Amino acid sequence: MTVNKVYIAGNWKMNLHREESVELLKGLREGKIPSQVEAILCPPFLRLEGAAELLEGSPYKLGAQDVSKYENGAHTGEISASMLKDLGLSYVIVGHSELRGEGQTDEEVSQKVRAALREGLVPIVCLGESEEEYDRGLSLETVARQLEESVLSLSPEEAEKVILAYEPLWAIGTGKNCPPEVAQEVAAHLKGKLKVPVLYGGSVKGNNAGEYLSCQDIDGVLVGGASLKAEEFLTIVEAAL
Ligand code: PGA
Q1: Which run of H or E residues covers position 181?
Q2: 22, 40, 125, 164: which one has the fewest Cβ atoms less than 10 Å from its Cβ?
Q3: Is 167 part of the annotated catalytic residue set?
Q4: Could you report the per-residue pLDDT of 139-157, keeping only the tens digit for each?
C-alpha cells in the first residue's frame, strides 16, 4: 500500500433496527482505526442522527446511501444534501447499482453528485457493469461510459472532488468475487480518465479485502453485507495495514 489514505466504507443498505444499529456502533467504537484509514459508515437515513451521536469523538466518518438531486422544498420523501450536511455527514454514496436498477439514470446521478458537492459532501459514485457486459468483455467500456455521463459531464473542479467505486453488479451480494486483477485493471482505467481515489466493492469480506487493497490503483473498499458485523468490518480495516 502507498502512504495515501485507505478508504474502508460500509454500506448498511436497508438493514438494522435501532437496537441492532446501537450494538454495531458500540462494537465498532471498540476497534482501533489506524490514522491512514478513513473509516466511513453509511447507515439508512433513519439511523444517521443516532449514529452521529454515538460516534461523536470517534474517528469514524458518516455517509448517506443516497441524496436528493433537489434543493430543499416540495419534494415528498426526499432528503436534501443540506439536511445531510446539517447532521455533520462527510460522504454520500451516489448511483449505487441497486438504485440505478430502479431507474436512476446517469443524468440523475450527475445531478445528485452536484447537489452533494454544493454542500461540501464527498460523493462516492458507484460504477459497474452487468454480468452480461462482463461476459462480453465490456467492463471497461461500460464504466467509462458511466463515468463520462455521471461525473465527467460536470466541471473539472467538481469532478476531481469525487471518489469512484467500481462495483461490478454480478459481484454485489453474490459472494462471487471479481478477480483482483480485473478490479485493478478497471481501477487503473478509471484513474487514467480522472485522478481520484477508486474503491472496489462487491462481496468484500475480511478474508479477501487484502487482495483488493494490495492492488496498485485501488484505494479502498465499499463493503455491504460484511459491514453489518463489527468484527468483520474491523478485520477489513486491519487488512488495510
Ligand atoms: P456486498 O455489497 O459487499 O454485500 O456485495 C457491496 C455494495 O453493494 O456496496
Answers
A1: helix 180-193
A2: 22
A3: yes
A4: 999 999 999 999 999 999 9
